[in-house]
Amino acid sequence: MKKIFNNKYLVTLTLIIILFFSYLFFLNFYKFKSIFFEKKWQYSKNKIERNNEITFNYQKKEKIFFEENEYNFLKIFLKDFGLFYKDDYIYRPLGYIDIFKDRIIFASHDGNFYFTNKINEIKGGKKEFYKFNKTNFDFKFDIEDEDPYRNILIRDILIDKNNLYVVINGRKKIKVDQFSLTTKILKGKIDLQKKEIDFKIFFDPGEKIIGSTDFSHSGGRIAKFKNNKFLLTVPDHALMDDYKLLIKKINSKNSIIGKVLLVDQESYEVFSYGHRNQQGLYYDEEKDLIFETEHGPTGGDEINLIKKGNHYGWPLATYGARVEGLNKFRNHKKNNFTEPLAYWWPRNCGMSEIIKPEKNFNKNWRGYVLLNACLTGSGANQGLSIYRWEFNLKNKKLKKKNKYYIGDRIRDMKYSKKDNSILLVLENQKALGIIFKN
């Protein structure tokens, strides 16, 4: 009898111990995941870096593979067309692109604008690059300003009909080492024949933001939406010296900080809340879906499905690293925030733009395909790449399918439906890239 009792006691004790350690593992799963990731990276680092070198050398031959499918990868090196870059200055962001009358429009860091010949001609080997000789807005680029993210105003461009919309960070010097910011939109009519763009202020929220601790948090992506309105992303502006103010402004409908806005020339409204540093924005008009990418802290880069009125967690919830005194939660849903479709942990890929190619770009890619581009990221082979995802339209889940190493910071990415080509801004090489199949 005593033996049976002892056996029952031991079984119960064993179960309690198992449950206790299971509970600890569950609570700290992300820590175990981080340890496993780092160990795996250390083990596979040399092999991955060798493969990346082979891939990049193949790109020098103007080729790239998506799985077993070979594509052309042409590059337009901006220096070849007279654009000048100092060796000791970091040009970030280098510039942004869109498509106008089958040509690439390139908005350079310094406020100069350029256009190419037709994309099909470039694919055939003919490369031309022209400068718009006249614009009527001073983008105030100052090569003596050592902070490029503060210095460079342009944060995105969008072409709609004959108009070029330019998002700027609205940087204005108040006094030595103090600046104000606000996300504005310019609108300019494009005249290719005269090589002119006539800019006017299209949107100004009238909110001056002072106290940014990181001017890389001063971007803003733009996408055409319904009823002649536009979606505009506004980051948190890194107000990290005053957490209470940051939380208050992100949660307030009276501030643009940390939001996706719905704007037109006359007014704006808050579309969604709780964003940190958005880098990509895509609106699928046919399916009425909005996809957004944003930078997390260390880890925590996200892909989000944006819905009106939803709060996406920042600065209280993130799957990135803990910021003492600020973010409290990892799980979003349990704390009344919207979960991301996907997130990175423990290293980031350095999210940039997100696009949806047509099915005929690669007939082996099944389902609803999304591609996101990356900047440097936080190492361990996460950045400098394009990721492919499959989005399930029924259950609204996103599944990672593959990653394609590009070997450069991809500042911007667009898809040309007419030319069935992916267009890239390659920041380190200071080049535009065109990926297409013969």
Brief rundown of the structure:
By secondary structure, the chain is α+β, with helices and mostly antiparallel strands.
Layout of SSEs?
Blueprint: H1 2-27, H2 29-59, E1 63-66, E2 69-77, E3 95-100, E4 103-108, E5 113-118, H3 119-123, E6 129-131, E7 134-135, H4 148-151, E8 154-160, E9 163-168, E10 172-175, E11 178-181, E12 184-191, E13 196-203, E14 209-210, E15 222-224, E16 230-234, H5 243-251, E17 259-263, E18 268-272, E19 277-284, E20 289-295, E21 302-305, E22 342-343, E23 351-355, E24 368-374, E25 385-391, E26 398-405, E27 410-416, E28 421-426, E29 431-436
Parallel strand pairs: 7-13
Antiparallel strand pairs: 1-2, 2-29, 3-4, 4-5, 5-6, 8-9, 9-12, 10-11, 11-14, 12-13, 15-16, 16-17, 17-18, 19-20, 20-21, 21-22, 23-24, 24-25, 25-26, 27-28, 28-29
Structural features, described:
It is a single chain. The protein is globular. Helices cover 17% and strands 37% of the residues. The chain has helices at residues 2-27, 29-59, 119-123, 148-151, 243-251, and strands at 63-66, 69-77, 95-100, 103-108, 113-118, 129-131, 134-135, 154-160, 163-168, 172-175, 178-181, 184-191, 196-203, 209-210, 222-224, 230-234, 259-263, 268-272, 277-284, 289-295, 302-305, 342-343, 351-355, 368-374, 385-391, 398-405, 410-416, 421-426, 431-436. A 5-stranded antiparallel β-sheet has the order 1-2-29-28-27. Strands 7-13-12-9-8 form a 5-stranded mixed β-sheet, with no helix packed on it. Strands 3-4-5-6 form a 4-stranded antiparallel β-sheet. The chain has a domain at 92-219. It has 438 residues and is α+β, with helices and mostly antiparallel strands.
